[in-house]
Structure formats: C-alpha cells, structure tokens
Amino acid sequence: MKAFAIFGRIPNYWRWLRMLSSLRHFEQSEIAQRRLEIIQFYEQFGEAATQQAFGADRKVISRWRQRLTRSQGQLQALIPRSTRPHRVRRSAIPPEIIEFIRALREKYPRMGKDKIKLFLDRFCHAHGFHCLSVSTIGNVIKKHRLFFYRSGRLYHDPGSAWAQKNARKIKRFRVRKSPTPQAYGYVLSDTVERIVDGIKYYFYNGIDAKMKFALTLMYPRLNSQNNQDFYQRFKRVYPWEIHIWQTDNGKENLGDFESALEKDHVPHVFSYPHCPKINAFIERYNRTIQEEFIDNHLELLTDPKLFAAELADYLIFYNSQRPHQSLNMLSPLDDLVQKGLMSQMSLTSTLATQYSVVGKRLQRQFSSICLLSFPNTRLRAL
C-alpha cells in the first residue's frame, strides 16, 4: 500500500505495471519470441517469403496478430496456451481393486508394483475384474498416496574404527567380492539393532544367497552365544544343507558361534571392513525386513509373544508367498517345488488364502523358533 501511495499518482500506472509483467513473461518464452519474429518478418516481406523462410502460412500469423490486438499489444499473448482438454478422461478402476492395493500396501508398505501385480491378478480373476498393468498399479499408488512406510534411519557400521578398536587381531579367511554361488548352501548373516524406550533389541538375520530363503530372530543381547543359537535354529528350518557361512567382522561372529561352525565342518568366511558390497545379499535383506516388518511393528516389541507371532507370519509369507525378482517372481519354496527339489506334498494346506498355501510343519517351526529366541527375562535398559 505504501508503494501504491508513492507511484499510484503516475498516469496509467496499472497499465505500465501490466506491461512490465507481460514483458517479463515474454522474455521467458522462446516460442513467443519466435512468433514475434515471424510476425515482424511477415509485415516486412509478405506471405510468400514468410512461408518459405519459416513455414508459417497467413492463417496462423493472423491468429497470432488477433491475440495481440485483443490484448492491447501485450506480448504475453503470444505465449502458447495450454492444450489440456476441458473434460479429461476419468479413471474407471473399481474401488474394490483400490482397496485391495491399499490393504496390501498397509500390511507390506515396501511391496512394489511388480510384486503387487501377481497378487492383484489372482484377486481380479477371482472377482471378475480386468487385470491392471504394472504401470497402472504404480499410478494408483501415486494418485491415492498409498505410502505407509516410515522414514529411514542410519545404520550402525560394525566395521567402523570405533567398533573394531578393541577387537583382537585374528587371521581370517576373507572374500574379496560378493559371492555368486551356483548351488544352494551359501548363507550370509548380519544383525540389525533397534532402540525403543531405552531398550536395545537385536535382530539376527540370515539368508541363502541363491535360494533367498531367510530367517530373522530377535534377541536381547549381541553376543556369540545368541549367534550360535540363531545358527542352530536356522538349521532347523533351512530346507538344504549349509556348505559355507559368511559374516562381517563383528564380535558376535566369533567365540561360541565359530566353534559351532567348526563342529559342523562349515567353513566360516569374513568380508573386508567398510565393504558392505561384499555382503550385498544380506544387506538387501536387512533393508527389506526393516522396511516391510520391523519398522512397522516397533510398538509390539513390549509384548514378545505377540511380536514373535507376527514375525513368524511374516517369515512364512516371505519364504512361501512373497515374489522375488531374482527368482522370476516366485517365492523361495515355490522355486524349489518348480525345480523338483521339494515335493508339493510337503507344503500341507493350512493357511488357505487367495495367494497360496503354507504347510503346518513350516508354520509350527517358525512360530516356535521365533518365540523361543526371545527369553522371558527382564531386558537390560540403557
């Protein structure tokens, strides 16, 4: 208002102000400047020369000149207008499909559109809907904002100088690059830490590099005794024979754990410090288990039994139902069945869902293992 009080007495103040605004927008548009150049060339040399030089006929130039006339000479009128139709096509996706995608994303927030399509196709066939493409599923997720995952967090680096300052110098057999096994039995393991209400929770993770069969168990402490217990429980549910075990250089990977490997004649190899790419398979699984389960169930950590039950359900889903891109969108157990390495009869029908079935034996083993891994003792507070 103060500026208007000073300049408002200038004759045609608003007209000059609109002209300056028009010039500013005109200078930002190369197309508008090109059109003005064509108009000036047309007025000087005529239609034939303009047609030959720029390929613009008289009708097009007349429309541009009319726009200038109607806008009282404002060059902003030469800026191309939006060609978006007034009435656009509306999406005809049934609300049942949207709710199905929403429910799946709420339960598994990090599941991508490629994996969702496999479940959605079965749902559409069962309910008589047309199947959606992968890109359409992605558009539905973006349009309806079906993003339920929590923000990421920093990860502890067990190979850092702080973690290694008191470590003993031990000669270890190390691998120089990420493994590419041609057979099953190459297992990698690692741990993930979470702190909730001043209490530390450690998640021991293990995965087969080729089969993609994985297990996660929660423990109250990070030590070799718990890692040995994790190894024994991994053997109970692992559907193959372990040939080699790869870890990082953490203290939990020595002591009782290494003795258990030596007793079973399982070679123990280590990665180089500060080289997470060597542990690419387990690092990727660490991210998956955190984004798809742990970070979405932190409130259940105060109830170990309930958390163990939910963890068992997720592990069953991960190993017997969840599609894996490296397995041609099959689950680890489905891949074994398809290759004839596991009988379909071993997967007894118990959880008859619209996706697949899971065996009684598998469900019982995962539930008992997840529950027994976390003792009913008072947790050590920080």
Average pLDDT taken over every residue: 82
Q: Work out the strand percent.
A: 5-15%
Termini gap:
60 Å
Backbone shape: elongated
Query: How are helices and strands ordered from N to C?
Result: HHHHHHHHHEEEHEHEHHHH
Secondary-structure class? alpha/beta
Q: What is the tally of beta strands? A: 5
Enumerate the strands of the largest sheet in spatial order, edge to edge or round the barrel.
3-2-1-4-5
In CATH, the topology of the largest domain is named: Nucleotidyltransferase, domain 5
Structural overview:
By secondary structure, the protein is an alpha/beta fold. The chain folds into three domains: 2-78, no CATH class; 95-143, no CATH class; 170-372, 2-Layer Sandwich (Nucleotidyltransferase, domain 5). Helix content is 45%, strand content 9%. It contains 15 helices and five strands. The chain has helices at residues 2-7, 13-27, 30-45, 47-54, 58-70, 95-107, 113-127, 134-143, 161-164, 224-237, 255-263, 280-292, 304-320, 332-338, 360-372, and strands at residues 186-196, 199-208, 214-219, 244-247, 268-270. The protein has a five-stranded mixed β-sheet with strand order 3-2-1-4-5, sandwiched between helices. Helix 3 (30-45) packs antiparallel against helix 4 (47-54) and helix 7 (113-127) packs across helix 8. The radius of gyration is 32 Å and the shape is elongated. Mean pLDDT is 82; it is low at 348-360 and 375-382.
